[in-house]
Amino acid sequence: MEALDKIKRISKDPYSYALNLKQATGKPVIGNFCSYTPEELIYAAGGIPFRLFGTKDDISMADAHLQAYCCSLVRGGLEDALNGNLSFLDGTVFPHTCDSIQRLSDIWRLNADFAFHIDVVLPVKLDTESAKIYMVDVINGFKKNLEAALNITITRENLTKSIIVYNRIRKMLGEIYEIRSNSPDSISAADVYHIIKASMVMERDELLELLIKLLDELKNKATGSTLDTKNKKRIMLSGGICNHPDIYTALEESGAEVIWDDLCTGSRYFEGEINETGGPIEAIADRYLTRIVCPAKHMGMTVRGESLVHQAKKHDAAGVIFLLLKFCDPHAFDYPYLKQFLDDAGIPSILLEVEEQLPSDGQLKTRFETFVDMLD
Ligand code: SF4
Ligand code: SF4
Hints:
Blueprint: H1 2-12, H2 14-25, E1 29-32, H3 39-44, E2 48-51, H4 72-82, E3 91-95, H5 99-111, E4 116-120, H6 129-150, H7 156-182, H8 189-199, H9 204-221, E5 233-239, H10 245-253, E6 256-262, H11 267-270, H12 280-290, H13 303-314, E7 319-325, H14 329-344, E8 349-354, H15 361-373
Parallel strand pairs: 1-2, 1-3, 3-4, 5-6, 5-7, 7-8
Helix pairs in contact: 1-2, 1-8, 1-9, 4-5, 6-12, 7-8, 7-9, 8-10, 10-15, 13-14
C-alpha cells in the first residue's frame, strides 16, 4: 500500500520530513507536546502543528535544566531543542496541562532559541459554565498571539475550512481504528500506530489526501474476519503518550493484538467532532471541553473510568495494558481508580512502566505472555 508506506516513512523520521517540508514550502512548523493544543488555529494560520515525542538520543544537555525525575518526554523534548535537532521549528505552543509541561514551558522560553513561544492557559476544570466562557476567551487569545507571531490574519473562512479538514481527518482516523477493531487482519496495530503518529506531524492537506487513499485501500481489503480469540487475545492500551511500535509487535508475538486504545497519542487525539455551523472559536472550544478527558484535566470523578470500561466493552477487549511513562504523575494518580473500574467490570489489567528505552525483548515478552495466559 503506497499511502501506508509513505506514512510509515514519515512516522519513522518526522524530523527529516519537517525539515524538507519547511525548505520546500516555507510554511511555519509549530511544535507542541500535548493533544490539548488547539491545532485547528495553527492550520488556519497556514502552519503545520508538529507533535514532539521526546528523543531517542541520550539525554545530557537537558539535565542541566531538569531534574532526573521528570518524564522522558519532557527531558527528551528539551534535549532536542537544545542540541539543534528541532531547528525546523518556527515556534512552540504550550497548553496548560501537567506540571512538567508547565515548568518545561518556562525553561524552554529562557533556553531554547525559537522565534516565538505561546502559552495557552486552558481551564483545568472543564465541566462548568464558566470553563466554557474561559475556554472561548483563551482560544481567542491564542488566535491573537498566533496572528502577531506569524504576522497574518486568521479569517473566519480559514477557521471554518480548518474545522472541516480536522473533522475529516479525525473521522478517517476513527474509521481506520474501527477497521482494525472489526477486521484485525486488514492492518497491523503497529501500522495503525504509525498512521496516528504521522497524523500529528504531517502537513494536514497532504495527510488528508493520503488518508483518503489509504482508507479506500483498507475498505477494499477489510475481510470482516474477527480474531481467532482462542489463539489471539484482544487487548486495549491506556495511558498518555506511546512512542513504541515494538510494544505492538511484542504483544503479537505473545498471543495478543491491540485492537483499540485510550492514549493521548491514539484515540483521544481523534475523538470528538467539531460543530461546523455557528461560531468557529466557540465550536473549537466546545470540542476541547467535551473530548475524553486526560488526567491533567478534571471533569468529574468517574468520567474517565466509565469511558475506559465503555471502550473496553465496546471493542470486546479481553484485557487492558496501562502504559505509564516513568515519572508521569498525572497518569500515575489516575491509575488506581481506573484499575478499580476495570476490576469492578471484570476486565483484567496490568501496569507497564516504560521509558524512552523499552525493557529488553525477552523481559517484555515474558510479562506480556504471563498476562495473556491469564485472559479468558
Ligand atoms: S496525557 Fe494529557 S497532559 Fe499529557 S500530553 Fe496527553 S493530553 Fe497532554
Ligand atoms: S502528562 Fe505525563 S508524560 Fe505527559 S508530559 Fe506530563 S508528566 Fe510527561
